[in-house]
Write a structure and sequence with these properties.
Elements (H helix, E strand, L loop, with lengths): L2 H13 L6 H6 L12 H14 L7 H12 L9 H10 L8 H12 L18 H17 L12 H22 L9 H15 L3 H21 L14 H5 L5 H10 L9 H8 L6 H8 L3 E7 L19 H6 L9 H7 L5 H19 L15 E7 L4 E5 L14 E4 L5 E5 L21 E5 L2 E7 L9 E5 L7 E5 L2 E6 L2 E9 L3 E4 L3 H8 L3 H7 L4 E5 L2 E10 H4 L2 H6 L6 E3 L4 E5 L3 E6 L2 E5 L2 E2 L8 E3 L2 E3 L5 E5 L4 E5 L4 E4 L1
Antiparallel strand pairs: 1-2, 1-20, 2-3, 3-4, 4-5, 5-8, 6-7, 7-14, 8-13, 9-10, 10-11, 11-14, 12-13, 15-16, 16-17, 17-18, 18-19, 20-21, 22-23, 23-24
Helix pairs in contact: 1-3, 1-13, 3-5, 3-13, 4-6, 5-6, 5-7, 7-8, 7-9, 8-10, 9-10, 9-13, 10-14, 12-13, 16-17, 18-19
Amino acid sequence: MDRISYLQLVSDSCRDKMSSTKEEAMAVKAYHGADSFQGLYYELAQMELAKATGIIPHVRDYIIDKALDRMDTRLDCADFVIPAIIRMLYEHRGTDRLPEEMAKRMEKSLIGFKYWLDEPGEVHACYFTENHQVLFYSAEYLAGQLFPDAVFTNNGMTGRERKAHGAKALRKWLSWRWRFGFSEWLTQGYYMDDILGLVNLMVYAEDEDIRLQSRMIVDLLVFDLAAHGFRGHLPTTHGRVYTDFIIEPDHEDCSHLMRFLFDEGSNEGLCGAAVMLASVGYECPGAVAEVYNKREMTIHQRMSVDAADAAAFGIDPKDFENIMFFWGMQTYSDRVCIDNSLKVFPIWNWMTNRVRAYKERYELCDEAGVPAPDAPDFTAMTQVDICTRKTKDYIISCAQDFRKGRMGYQQHPWTASLGGRAVIFTTNPASLEYQNRPNRWAGNLCLPRAVQHENVLFCIYRIMPDFVDYLNSHLYFPKHEMDEVVEEKGYIFGRKGKGYIAVSVISAGDQYWEEKDKALFAHVYGEKAEEMYQKAEDYEYVAQGHAAVWAVEMGSEGENGSFRAFIDGFKEKGLAGDTHAFTYFSPTFGEMRCGWGKELVVEGKTINIHQYPRYDMPGCEMAFDADEINICGDKHTLSMQFDKLIHTEG
């Protein structure tokens, strides 16, 4: 979709959802939407349209005030709006599109902002996750570049000093992302926040390396969306997930961007990253667009590293200059870096208390001569080996054997989809609500062992007995989103369009369909909750007991013939054994064997599920920690060499 058409789509789709009065808009507390503080991106879209058409927009100064108030009070996610402010000042200041009085207030907020943890002022926001890091670094760099002679009031640095400070941190972040990918892998929201932090850099950065390398990282993020995208959505494994996004794919932030990039995805809502890329006239590389349009492929991909392996890649955990590498992976409590983690917050706060507790655990265990896990934190996003299989009819995606048996946070090991809201996955619920991290559907209290080969996946749960209230796993399988559902032979079979899925489970306890919960629909759909609730049928299938094996197999009319033929290809009770060792009869592969501590064996052959390359897929082979990537389509190519600053499209 061309940039003006997309910006007009944003304008039209948001207009009907805006409050009718200033008072109503100012009362909105949400993080997203045209009336939230991130509604600033709607105002940016209006300015960009005005620049193209000459029609001066009506700027809702009270929405801009809301965004600037969030900056001035230094609340969490204030960094999300700074890219829009930077763009407005660079492109629209001095025109009728941006009143000078408002531009001056933006300038004041940027000059008074707290850009990093070690500056004066209390910490009310998260600075250190992977996406927040680049947002703060780029904000500091660009604000300093914009106002080089100004004295930034929070710590007395000049703009030039700010720019130099931000540049140093940016160069590390950019290098880490190129070399190791994203610890917040394939996230429906945080990939968009990474892009927010990079777009202005690839246009305005005066340092050539930062400008070009930022463009390369944006292209890599877009490449991930193209490779793993399915019908305008990203129904894959995720480093971090939220209930809203996974239950209703049209709510994904990335789906709005995919509408702009690939002309498939959500038609409604507001995605800052999409508005920014449209504003700067970003064009998806032809080779990447070809990858998105390739409807059948298997992808193997590796991202992130284990903290204990970082030194082998030249990231010394004893060097405090590298501490944000570990905090970006949320491995702050790992033994290799915990001493430096204690220096991040020298005075007490929520993170200091946590890190000190882990440090004391190591000391007590060492004193007693007993082992202690060296990578304990439940939020950690360490090395991940991703397998995704997609055809024109379905997609299934898995984080292979990721931190099995550990406490989880927002990590999402696997998803299958037949398109739209017909998404299927399992979790070990951490609660019966939908806000916490983890909760009923987003994340896992105890991480399973999920493994995949092509179109077949196993998800094995062995839940720690400490969590006595949640000794079960459950399947999200929305019957109402399927064209057909059949239960026989010990399987749940589903069809949507020409895509098929079969799910079977063996567990230590009873199995049953749970009653639907109005609270889920209220959380996801808001004012449409009752309508969606009434349409819904069973969607939650529970397997009681601490131990369970879920087997999932995908198929299609093209691969299996009719839906009935697909069903007939399965044997009665084709899944047998327990979590320690089981066998499964696959219509695609025949006998498959696996277990909690067993290798995945298919037709007598052991399947490798670890140490994947950075990319291993049709049209792209890239070794892990390589400097060069080449993406080859049928008509286009994209070649990037990070250190040599080469970006070539053909």
